[in-house]
Amino acid sequence: MVYPQAVAIPFISIIGICIIIVPLILHIKNKNYPSASILVWFVLLNLFNIINAFIWSSDDTDTWWDGTGLCDFEVKIMIASYVAVPGGLLCVFRSLARVLDTRCAALVPDKKQRWRNRGMEILFCVVVPLLSMVTHIFYQKSRYMVYQVSGCINNFDDSPISLALAFIWPPIICLPACWYCGLVLHRLRLYRSQFGDILNASNSNINKSRFIRLFSLNFIMLVIIFPIQCYVVWQNTVLSFPWHTYTWSAVHGPEWHTIVKYTTGGNAFFDRWVPVAACFLVFVFFGCGKDANELYRSFLRSLGLDRCFACLDTEYNHQTSMASSSGSKVKLLFSKNKIWSSTSR
């Protein structure tokens, strides 16, 4: 039997990966590495959605592959993503807050400041996710579980160490992200009349449009992710009761290598839809702008389609823009003449 979610999730995930490529290229081009890292995590999670839904879509668990190798890799990446995405949001809001900091807006960051900023990005986008992958073994009740459609799922030990090393850290990282987000809002309200001048003096490659889009996108993501992470902490903690005393031998016993498989009636876990929705949200803010359209045109020109469609030709676009500019000047001239003639009367 073919279930709707087993078809919808991989199909929409493929679309999500395709539409997020251009925003990812733009963020890398603009050296916005925290945002680029967030998009890389979304690409990986959507790729897992595609693979898992194709492999584990049937009801017959006896014919299922046990996921050896693939699931071992996936559960580690998923554990890292739980802290990597909030960490990326924290770095984005911190950088935006620094752009609006009038105390250093007109100063070129020295080598120490640049290393400090880069160190923060490496810490939350690389080091913290790697640490979460390393510490995963301490509360990993079994290698993994396999669920229909959703595929590889982490199995957490029912002890306080799961709360201390896993559940609590995503919302904790979201807290300073919320603080920096509030700081950006405060400075936007405080310097709203000098907003453009501050950006010009900030020695950053961000303009007013890109700043607003970047802030709006990450603000929406934070508003969605923070409550979800708090709910996940509460839900996982409640489900893990009653807690038992943690011992390494109890967690990593003879049954640790046993792979348990579950059917779900064709339903996927709700968190499988989060990276899908995030890709479309990113596309709305960064997949339809001027820079993105130019990348689309350059890609189509590389395929030779500029010979068929004149609008893809760079010379045609240049002439069109020149004509538009000339037309605007003529309209302005006639407008001035009209005003002059009316005043002379």
Q: Using only CA atoms, what is the Rg?
A: 25 Å
Low-pLDDT windows of residues: 320-334, 338-345
Calculate the terminal CA-CA distance, rounded to whole Å: 83 Å
Q: How many helical elements?
A: 12
Shape: globular
**According to CATH, what is the topology of the largest domain?**
Rhopdopsin 7-helix transmembrane proteins
Helix fraction by DSSP (H/I, runs of at least 4): 55-70%
Second-tier CATH architecture of the largest domain: Up-down Bundle
Sheet with the most strands? 3 strands, mixed
Q: How many β strands by DSSP?
A: 3
The pLDDT mean sits at 87
Number of domains: 2
Strand order of the largest sheet: 2-1-3
Derived from helix and strand composition plus strand pairing, the structural class reads mainly alpha
Strand percentage lies at: under 5%
Query: Briefly, what CATH class of the largest domain?
Result: Mainly Alpha
Give, in order, the helices and strands: HHHHEEHHHHHEHHH
Write a brief structural summary.
The chain crosses the membrane at residues 6-26, 38-57, 77-97, 118-139, 159-185, 214-234, 272-289. The chain has 345 residues and is mainly alpha-helical.
Task: Walk me through what this model shows.
This protein is an all-alpha fold. It folds into 2 domains: 4-290, Rhopdopsin 7-helix transmembrane proteins, CATH 1.20.1070; 313-344. It is 69% helix and 3% strand. It contains 12 helices and 3 strands. It has helices at 4-29, 33-55, 70-99, 111-139, 160-167, 169-190, 195-200, 208-240, 248-251, 274-286, 290-302, 314-344, and strands at 145-147, 151-153, 260-262. Helix 3 packs antiparallel against helix 4. The protein starts with a helix and ends with a helix.
